[in-house]
Amino acid sequence: MSTQKLLLLLWVGISVFVLRDVAASSIVFTSAPRGEFGEIRLPDIYVMSFDGGNVKQLTQTLAPEWGPKWSPDGKYILFVRDVLATSRRQSDIFIMDADGRNEQRLTYHPADDGFPTWSPDGKQIAFSSGRSGNIEIHLMDLASREITQLTDNEKAGGFSSKPNFSPDGTHIVYEQVIRNAGRQIYIIDVKTRAARNFLPQHIGGNRYTPRFSPDGKYLLYSEVEYRVEPGAIRRTANRLIVVNNRGKGRKVLKIPKNWRFEAASWAAQGTEILIAAMPNGLGGPLVPPNLDIYRYRLSTGQLTQLTNHPHSDSAPHWTRHALSVSSQGKVKTHWGAVKTEK
């Protein structure tokens, strides 16, 4: 065999190996898997491809991590870590490269900081924090690390949490807890700081985790109802809902009625939704559920299971960028991921 042919075969072999390892690692999520001897580990950050394959672990620490979010360009991941303080746990916001390297801590305040989200240009993050004495939405300029408070609940009572930018960066939707009225969805103008109720008040339930679609035309959120019993609070109903950006045209997604879900976000340029859910999870006590991640296709209502794990997989977040996540220095996790159509 000639040297030229040998080099060609070697190049082809290397290319195939590299292509196998270059997954479209488009979903970042949190998981708390069981260890070698059955012990439950604290949650870490993972990535996987859009079909649920090529799962890789990015963080492996002694502290729980949660709430990962891709940057708009897919190069970075925001997440929250519960760091140990003197007599209590304290959550702060961190950033790392898409492959889990070059981790940096963004907040150091003794109050809890959480639920970070990126501005569309990637220059700011919005997050909830109790640093003012109330839980409010704050903005951080990433270049200067300067932080400003956006919402103000001091007089009205309640608190603000789980922000999400509109695609044009001019507004933020968020959960607003109102005294004696549960959780509602509000929207605030980033420049003027004028806030208003995005939807008519919902009596008898709570609304959670509003998220703008990638094109800004729609809003995704969930509604949850509870029943209070002696010694227990039980979730009796939950719905995933899409409305247009004026709060009209309410559409309830066809999620099985007995499913319990904890998180949902847009995927595939707004044609699908990622859901962390537990089939047959409604009606039980509000203990931490055993969640898996599913894809929901809006055009057909088809559900595709992406993970099948003995402990919870949650907080999925999608990026449109196909990413190469090197396994060097990271833990490659082999799960029996079930990729079946439901």
Please explain how this structure is put together.
There is one protein chain. Helices cover 6% and strands 44% of the residues. By secondary structure, it is mainly beta. The protein has one domain (26-332): TolB, C-terminal domain (Neuraminidase). The chain has a five-stranded antiparallel beta sheet with strand order 24-1-2-3-25, with no helix packed on it. A four-stranded antiparallel beta sheet has the order 4-5-6-7, with no helix packed on it. A hairpin with a 3-residue loop joins strand 13 and strand 14 (182-189). The radius of gyration is 21 Å and the shape is globular. The protein starts with a helix and ends in a 10-residue tail after the last strand. Mean pLDDT is 84; it is low at 5-23 and 327-342.
Compile the SSE list and pairings.
Layout: H1 3-21, E1 27-31, E2 44-48, E3 56-57, E4 65-70, E5 76-84, E6 89-97, E7 104-105, E8 113-118, E9 124-129, E10 136-141, E11 147-149, E12 159-165, E13 171-178, E14 182-189, E15 195-197, E16 206-212, E17 218-229, E18 232-244, E19 251-252, E20 260-267, E21 272-278, E22 292-297, E23 303-305, E24 313-318, E25 331-332
Compute the CA-based radius of gyration. Answer: 21 Å
On the 0 to 100 scale, the average pLDDT is: 84
Give the tally of structural domains: 1
Oligomeric composition of the shown chains: single chain
Largest sheet: 5 strands, antiparallel
Distance between the termini: 51 Å
The first-level CATH class is given as Mainly Beta
What structural class is derived from the secondary structure elements?
mainly beta
Shape: globular
Q: Looking across the biggest beta sheet, what order are the strands in?
A: 24-1-2-3-25
Give the helix proportion (percent range): under 10%
Question: CATH homologous superfamily name?
Answer: TolB, C-terminal domain
